[in-house]
Amino acid sequence: MLTKLWPLTRLATSKLHWNQQLLTTMSTTTKSAHDTAVNSFNLNHSSYDIYRPSFSPILVNPFLVDLNLATFNKQDNTFTFDNDKRIVEIACGTGKFTKNLVDNGWSSNLSAVDPSRGMLETFRENFPQVDSVVQASSYNTPFDDDSIDAVIVAQGFHWFADEESLKEIHRILKPSGKLGLIWNFDYTSPSQDSVVSDSNYYNSGTRYYNDLDLTSSKNNQELLSQFFGNQKWNDKVTKYVYDFDVKVPQYRHGKWRSILLANPYFKNEVLDSFALYDKLIDKDDVWKYWETRSYITDLPQEKKDEIKGHIEEIIAKDTNEDSFDKDTQRLIKPMGTHTVVVSVRK
Asked: Which domain holds residue 172?
């Protein structure tokens, strides 16, 4: 078994030797990372880093508590982070979520994993202090059995929501370990198909929070539909772009939830939490935000130009003074963040 995590940032003189040793330590499987995901992120990693949203500590810190990586101090409303706990972040991308872990004190006990060469290129530029950076998929990781306290996947589990991935994550987690998933999302979907609980909702910076009825027994989908309906332009743009999402797995499809509820590797008790916020975005950046989607990146340029033009038409037609933040004059885009925590079955 591998006793040292081999940082890709230190491989200038021994890359071939490292690759040979890594191959002998990974689990064997016939599956690999989704081609569309890897190809897309190899191409658009820089744009992804600029235009995709980050993750607010307002939800991330309670998420880390749920993962047994932090404790909440009620007396002064602060969090204490256990940096001795070992974390593997799979599908780390450019580090949109990693920033929270680094800011909270993790570096030596943090390993970042991604199958995309392009994503890791930007990741290394963003986080030179993270030594353990591994180009690998969720199906093959170079970590010892029962060695990791928590595995975190941000904005990525839908790409590999199957038993083969869960088996590998199960292998490296300690008996007390947990798997944590987190997504930013644009719209209501089957992924939120559960009954709302006000204790698991957080206001991460939306002007519409107080208008929501969190005390009733509404389904999350019903509640979130009300929330996203506050901005007509965004509602139309989102539904329009989703029409092109026809061949790749996505968070919003909700298929990832069924595998969590029925597999031999994790307990079928799913802890869901949500945070709602307003993303302020320049009109010209709306297209750039959507262009980072894998199913848009994969389209020919002529089709991209057509989509861009239609998005601009919707913004021109369906915005008014209430569509813009009065201080910045940027468009208000309602957004949500969803966290999911499950415990390993060992």
From this structure: 8-185+201-206+249-278+336-343
| Assigned domain for 155 exists | yes
Cβ contact 248:314 at 8 Å: no
Q: Tell me what the mean pLDDT of segment 95-102 comes to.
A: 95
In a domain, 62, yes or no: yes
DSSP for 274-319, please give it.
EEEEEEEE-HHHHHHHHHTSHHHHTS-HHHHHHHHHHHHHHHHHS-
Tokens of 169: 């994550």
| DSSP state for residue 133 in the 8-state scheme | E
Report the alpha-carbon distance of residue 59 to residue 64 in Å, rounded.
9
Distance of CA 339 to the CA centre of its chain: 9
Q: Which pLDDT tens digit goes with each residue over 281-310?
A: 999 999 989 988 888 888 999 999 999 999
Confidence of residue 41 (pLDDT cuts 50, 70, 90): very low
> In this structure, is residue 194 part of a structural domain?
no
The total domain count for the chain is: 1
Residue pair 133/8 in contact (Cβ under 8 Å)? The answer is yes
pLDDT of residue 246: 80
> What is the reported pTM?
0.85
